[in-house]
């Protein structure tokens, strides 16, 4: 851990962006930062800032892989914006809210509306799956066409191109988000309770990752999928996934502590090319922290405005952020 007096800073490398409303998420389309706003608009921030209306109403979820930005709104639309600025309508639910969206390998796209999940490939009609409840989260497996869906009392693993029943992963409670490890051996969900739950797929072994003082609202894989970084505590909690058993029986790494007691991490983002994370806090503080020794770089001073969005550019040389109060910025490293 680096003390405040010793901590280097990159505050002077931040270009402010006028969001003027809550920033729901941050992404990068190529070299341009993308800020997704509560009103249904996005801001594309490169050499200049462009504000683009997408949905007639709020955006409920967004996903981006660097080449495509996918959004779902309460207007029932699923939209896709590419790096050239071309906007496509992927789906119109007829007014049913699009709760979750996800991008997968080989151009696959997923979304959920009501108690149904959908998967579309570049060719052919979308396929759908009935769910036991509304989807809390969607995540594609890194390889192959397989979708993990979090919902009430567990998760479902769906092969859209394979006949037969999907795989059910059961655990009582409300599951709000889902992610899959890089080696495809583990599925992890965030829960309404202040904990994570996971399954080792080869044998169905359960993993309960608890001890958080608050709900885990943000998670991100670090370089190579070695750790799963999470919010919900007064410092970033990193669960190890490099060993055979993942986090089972292991102690998590804790880095990037809050400046004041009781302040929680609200956003985490793993560096795409180095063992570093960015951590944003409920008081507006943003730290860049090296995993191996906890060394810190100050990116943003706390100002009482909670960080709600945080993302690295693919080359690891820029970070975009946004806050609940409508402040935002783009830092170059």
Automatic annotation (TrEMBL):
Positions of transmembrane segments: none
InterPro entries: Apc4-like_WD40_dom, Quinoprotein_ADH-like_sf, WD40/YVTN_repeat-like_dom_sf
One Pfam match: ANAPC4_WD40
Tree of life domain: Bacteria
Domain spans labelled Anaphase-promoting complex subunit 4-like WD40: 272-328
Residues in coiled coil: none
Protein name (record): Anaphase-promoting complex subunit 4-like WD40 domain-containing protein
Lineage of producing organism: Bacteria, Pseudomonadati, Pseudomonadota, Alphaproteobacteria, Hyphomicrobiales
């Amino acid at each position: 851990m680096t003390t405040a007096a010793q901590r280097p800073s990159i505050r002077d490398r931040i270009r402010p962006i006028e969001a003027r409303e809550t920033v729901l998420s941050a992404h990068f389309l190529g070299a341009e930062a993308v800020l997704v706003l509560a009103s249904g608009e996005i801001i594309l921030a490169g050499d200049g800032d462009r504000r683009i209306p997408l949905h007639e109403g709020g955006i409920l979820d967004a996903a981006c892989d660097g080449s495509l930005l996918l959004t779902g709104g309460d207007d029932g639309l699923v939209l896709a914006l590419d790096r050239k600025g071309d906007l496509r309508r992927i789906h119109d639910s007829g007014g049913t809210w699009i709760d979750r969206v996800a991008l997968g390998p080989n151009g696959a796209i997923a979304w959920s509306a009501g108690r149904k999940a959908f998967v579309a490939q570049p060719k052919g009609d979308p396929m759908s799956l009935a769910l036991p409840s509304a989807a809390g989260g969607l995540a594609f497996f890194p390889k192959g066409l397989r979708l993990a869906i979090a919902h009430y009392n567990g998760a479902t693993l769906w092969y859209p191109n394979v006949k037969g029943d999907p795989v059910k992963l059961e655990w009582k409670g409300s599951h709000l988000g889902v992610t899959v490890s890089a080696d495809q051996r583990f599925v992890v969900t965030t829960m309404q309770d202040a904990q994570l739950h996971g399954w080792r797929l080869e044998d169905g072994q359960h993993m309960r990752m608890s001890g958080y003082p608050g709900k885990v609202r943000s998670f991100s894989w670090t370089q190579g999928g070695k750790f799963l970084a999470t919010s919900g505590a007064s410092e970033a909690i990193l669960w190890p996934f490099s060993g055979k058993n993942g986090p089972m029986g292991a102690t998590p790494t804790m880095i990037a502590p809050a400046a004041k007691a009781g302040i929680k991490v609200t956003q985490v983002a793993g560096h795409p090319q180095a063992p570093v994370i960015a951590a944003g806090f409920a008081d507006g503080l943003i730290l860049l922290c090296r995993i191996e020794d906890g060394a810190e770089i100050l990116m943003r001073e706390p100002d009482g405005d909670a960080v709600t969005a945080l993302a690295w550019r693919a080359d690891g040389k820029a970070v975009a952020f946004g806050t609940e109060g409508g402040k935002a910025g783009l830092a170059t490293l």
